[in-house]
């Protein structure tokens, strides 16, 4: 269940009176527990020692008690030994009037009225395996509002199918933006009176909903009519109460979709929420999925947390401003200059979605400005920071609408907070009519036209700019001469996932400039454009990107050219999980990269460490710029590594060990069967089996069981394949594409392996084994090669220079093995390393039948195996520098230095 579904279930449960009999089961179900778990819980003896309480291990201890006993029962549950014994995470008690709950991991307890609980349901999201940040836990409003608006959106599309067509979607999205504005305005006194919008609709529209759209249409018309023009507008008397809002929001078409009874009631219900609690940054991220048919199923899951946004904005410019503020102390003149500087800053997000980076940047600058005002004794002073200096480009229409709205709301909230309600209201209406968020494709728009180096003299004003999409470049930046910071979280799209349009974007940008761009992630386009932009005007830019852009071919194919063109990284945040509200923390792995105007000292952020350095290279290391390029042969004196046997279109030649035993029983010679390993088979020590026919299989063999049939299946699969190589293999369907094996033994190295091991998996296999193309092999190699592959040095190298899939390692012979610098080894070195490899194998053997998967789990590695690896590292590292390296950074520095020397000689 996602957060939206949980919210809906919880709201439905707490809307009705509490039934002690059924409440616990319904509560657990609302948080995504399976019916079978709940039934089992009900039928088994209670784990709790408190009568009537329900205890779910590793989860919750809850009870519905008699009226007035909530406090004492809560204490009973909390101190109960069964709570500790069963590792309970949450305590929950209610008597149907009050709720008392606590997250035992240390968050403040929650006490609220029963009906109010849905407003706090975020507190319990960890129960459903959903990671939350404090902000969400404190205010569940954004999820609730998203959920309600989603229902309304879907219902309205049902009632008005023509509004769902691509021609009318903009109208629909604009309508939703207008509604959201009205809900916010009626709760914040922007509209006078209590819930003016909702109450007017409730009172003036018929209960059968037939004229709801007309009532809303009249309200919207009122908000488009300047007060002095009201007589001409001939508004109904009840609509006169609404202020003139416009700013483009209510101009143009005032078409309103028709409402059914259901959608009318949804609308009224949404109005009953407390919209003062809206977080424009969170809400925007969530609500944008409503308008996207594909994303709607993931509603509420994509929310970028403020701490993650600050990972970009702080090092980009906010930290430096805070430093300046600190230095300014109470010096009125310096503070004034800083305020002027802040008021001129432009922030530009060329993939702004619902504007969350812009909103946070705006709020942070308002905070700094307020500190300055306070230190200068100018409390409540009107802000000099113009909202229109926070510019964005967004390709999706609804997100662009929401981004503008989110900024408008943020401005009001800041005014309210720093200046008070009277002042906030005084400057709020009418809305500024400038359209400073552009809806369009950022890769096909000239950024210089949206954010010109010095601004232009032309100023557009008008009432319909909310609707005009492109060409709003000429809007003045208020307060000329400021710095420009480009930031954001542009889309990441790997090789296979790019649409035809996105490929065209890339070809337009990169053709004739960068070779091999087809392999790059789509996000590279934003770095490229920002770099081009920075050539024309002093700017710094920073984007979040998938961590793969700092690995493999991205480094040598993409960054190298930009670095050669003068680009330098100003800061970097190394790989971290981009968490959102998806259950079980299914976040992608990202980095943040800041570049632009060079700085003498730059910083790398790695978890909670901050590393100051002179240079950050494209692998995000504090080191000189190195470019590791794939090589077809090893640069060191080590054996050539080969890929295993390609098994696509050959699946019928592979079977499990039970089937293998049957073939042997049916008379198939043992030499015709081999153990078959891919990545996971090596790691889990669970090989499958395959036919191995170096020659045409004898007729006798083909008569055994289904062997002929299997071979025929391979033949027809290859025949029907669209791939020419497969077609070419039709004549030998009894064989894999390659038939590589060893004489005596070989080392198998899985292509993909988990990052959660301190060493790469490698195993020694016998000549009865073969591997698929999911592994690499060193056939009949000296055992000292294993000591190298199993070393920490190699682990660090592969993790840095090869492409990663998420955080997982993805081994490459050309990029990882062939490039690996190994000093010239003496016979003694080789003998020592051979002994180390034997010791590792023996240590593993002592835990037979445990597999690599069992033995190499971090923290759980058996001591003798750990000792064997440590010794291996010591022996190998002495060969490199005469002692052990202090850490991976030192290892990498040495390896890069050696690589540079060895390749320059070549
Ligand atoms: C990863 S989201 C980030 C949005 C927002 N900062 C957030 O955290 O929710 C990327 C945004 O870029 C938008 N986008 C994708 N391709 C674009 C393009 N070519 N031009 C402008 N925006 C684009 C998407 O619609 C999406 O809103």
What does the secondary structure layout of this molecule look like, with pairings?
Elements: H1 3-15, H2 23-30, H3 35-43, E1 54-56, E2 60-64, H4 70-79, H5 81-85, E3 90-94, E4 98-103, E5 110-113, H6 134-138, H7 141-159, H8 166-187, H9 196-204, H10 212-224, H11 230-233, H12 261-271, H13 280-287, H14 306-328, H15 332-344, E6 346-349, H16 356-375, E7 390-394, H17 397-419, H18 421-428, E8 437-439, H19 447-450, E9 484-488, H20 500-510, H21 524-534, E10 539-546, H22 552-564, E11 569-578, E12 588-596, E13 602-606, E14 609-613, E15 642-643, E16 654-655, H23 657-665, E17 673-677, H24 679-684, E18 688-691, H25 699-702, H26 707-720, H27 724-728, E19 745-750, E20 752-753, E21 763-766, E22 769-771, E23 775-779, H28 784-789, H29 792-801, E24 804-805, E25 808-810, H30 813-817, H31 827-845, H32 852-855, H33 863-881, H34 888-905
Parallel strand pairs: 2-3, 6-7, 6-9, 7-8, 9-10, 11-13, 17-22
Antiparallel strand pairs: 1-2, 3-4, 4-5, 10-12, 11-12, 13-14, 15-23, 16-18, 17-18, 19-21, 19-23, 20-25, 24-25
């Amino acid at each position: 269940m996602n957060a939206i579904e949980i919210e809906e279930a919880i709201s439905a449960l707490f809307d009705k009176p509490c039934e002690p009999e059924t409440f616990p089961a319904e509560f657990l179900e609302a948080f995504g527990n399976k019916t079978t778990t709940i039934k089992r819980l009900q039928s088994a003896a209670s784990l709790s020692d408190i009568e009537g309480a329900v205890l779910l291990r590793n989860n919750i201890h809850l009870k519905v008690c008699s009226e007035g006993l909530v406090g004492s029962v809560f204490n009973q549950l909390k101190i109960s030994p069964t709570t500790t014994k069963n590792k309970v995470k949450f305590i929950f008690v209610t008597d149907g009037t009050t709720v008392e709950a606590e997250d035992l991991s240390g968050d403040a307890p929650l006490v609220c009225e029963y009906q109010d609980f849905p407003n706090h349901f975020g507190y319990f999201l960890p129960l459903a395996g959903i990671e939350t940040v404090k902000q969400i836990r404190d205010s569940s409003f954004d999820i609730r509002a998203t959920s309600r608006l989603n229902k309304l959106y879907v219902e309205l599309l049902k009632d008005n199918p023509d509004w769902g067509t691509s021609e009318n979607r903009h109208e629909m999205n604009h309508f939703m933006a207008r509604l959201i504005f009205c809900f916010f305005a009626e709760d914040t006194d922007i509209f006078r009176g209590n819930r003016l919008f909702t109450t007017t609709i409730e009172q003036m529209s018929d209960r059968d909903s037939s004229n709801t759209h007309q009532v809303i249409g009249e309200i919207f018309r009122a908000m488009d009519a300047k007060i002095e023009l009201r007589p001409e507008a001939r508004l109904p008397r009840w609509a006169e109460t609404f202020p003139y809002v416009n700013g483009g929001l209510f101009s143009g078409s005032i078409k309103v979709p028709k409402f059914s009874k259901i959608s009318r009631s949804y609308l009224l219900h949404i109005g009953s929420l407390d919209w003062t609690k809206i977080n424009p940054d969170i809400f925007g991220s969530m609500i944008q999925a409503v308008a996207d048919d594909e994303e709607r199923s993931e509603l509420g899951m994509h929310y970028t947390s403020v701490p993650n946004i600050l990972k970009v904005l702080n090092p980009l410019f906010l930290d430096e401003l805070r430093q300046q503020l600190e230095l300014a102390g109470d010096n009125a003149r310096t503070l004034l200059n800083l305020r002027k500087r802040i008021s001129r800053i432009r922030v530009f997000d060329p993939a702004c979605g619902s504007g969350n980076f812009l909103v946070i940047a705006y709020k942070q600058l308002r905070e700094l400005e307020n500190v300055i005002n306070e230190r200068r004794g100018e409390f409540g002073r009107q802000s000099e920071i113009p909202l229109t200096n926070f510019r964005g480009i967004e390709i999706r229409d609804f997100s662009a609408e929401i981004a503008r709205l989110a900024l408008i709301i943020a401005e009001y909230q800041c005014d309210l907070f720093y200046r008070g309600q009277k002042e906030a209201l005084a400057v709020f209406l009418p809305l500024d009519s400038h359209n400073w968020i552009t809806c369009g494709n950022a890769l096909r728009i000239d950024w210089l036209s949206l954010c010109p180096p010095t601004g232009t003299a032309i100023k557009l004003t008008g009432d319909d700019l909310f609707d005009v999409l492109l060409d709003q470049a000429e809007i003045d930046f208020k307060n000329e001469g400021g710095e420009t910071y480009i930031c954001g979280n542009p889309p990441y799209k790997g090789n296979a996932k790019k649409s035809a349009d996105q490929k065209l974007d890339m070809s337009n940008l990169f053709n004739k400039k960068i070779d091999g761009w087809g392999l790059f992630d789509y996000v590279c386009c934003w770095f490229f454009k920002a770099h081009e932009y920075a050539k024309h005007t002093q700017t710094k830019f920073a984007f979040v990107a998938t961590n793969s852009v700092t690995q493999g071919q991205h480094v040598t194919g993409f960054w190298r050219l930009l670095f050669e063109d003068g680009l330098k990284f100003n800061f970097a945040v190394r790989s971290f999980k981009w968490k959102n509200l998806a259950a079980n923390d299914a976040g992608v792995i990202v980095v943040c990269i800041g570049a632009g105007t060079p700085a003498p000292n730059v910083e790398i952020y790695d978890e909670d460490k901050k590393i100051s350095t002179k240079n950050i290279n494209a692998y995000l290391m504090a080191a000189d710029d190195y470019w590791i390029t794939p090589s077809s042969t090893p640069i060191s004196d080590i054996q050539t590594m080969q890929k295993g046997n390609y098994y696509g279109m050959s699946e019928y030649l592979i079977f499990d060990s039970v089937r293998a035993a049957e073939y042997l029983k049916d008379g198939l010679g043992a030499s015709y069967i081999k153990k078959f390993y891919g990545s996971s088979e090596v790691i889990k020590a669970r090989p499958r089996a395959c036919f191995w026919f170096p020659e045409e299989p004898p007729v006798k063999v083909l008569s055994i069981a289904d062997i002929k049939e299997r071979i025929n299946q391979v033949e027809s699969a290859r025949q029907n394949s669209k791939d020419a190589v497969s077609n070419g293999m039709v004549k030998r369907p009894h064989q894999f594409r390659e038939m590589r094996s060893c004489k005596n033994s070989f080392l198998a190295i899985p292509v993909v392996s988990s990052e959660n091991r301190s060493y790469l998996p490698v195993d020694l296999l016998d000549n009865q084994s073969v591997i698929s193309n999911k592994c690499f092999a060193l056939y009949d190699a000296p055992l000292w090669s294993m000591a190298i592959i199993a070393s920490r040095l190699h682990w660090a190298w592969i993790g840095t220079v090869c492409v990663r899939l998420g955080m997982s390692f993805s081994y490459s012979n050309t990029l990882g093995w062939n490039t690996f610098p190994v000093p010239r080894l003496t016979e003694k070195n080789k003998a020592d390393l051979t002994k180390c490899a034997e010791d590792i194998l023996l240590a593993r053997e002592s835990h037979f039948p445990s597999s690599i998967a069992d033995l190499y789990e971090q923290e759980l590695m058996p001591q003798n195996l750990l000792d064997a690896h440590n010794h291996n590292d010591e022996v190998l590292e002495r060969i490199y520098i005469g002692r052990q390296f202090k850490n991976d950074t030192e290892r990498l520095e040495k390896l890069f230095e050696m690589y540079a020397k060895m390749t320059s000689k070549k």
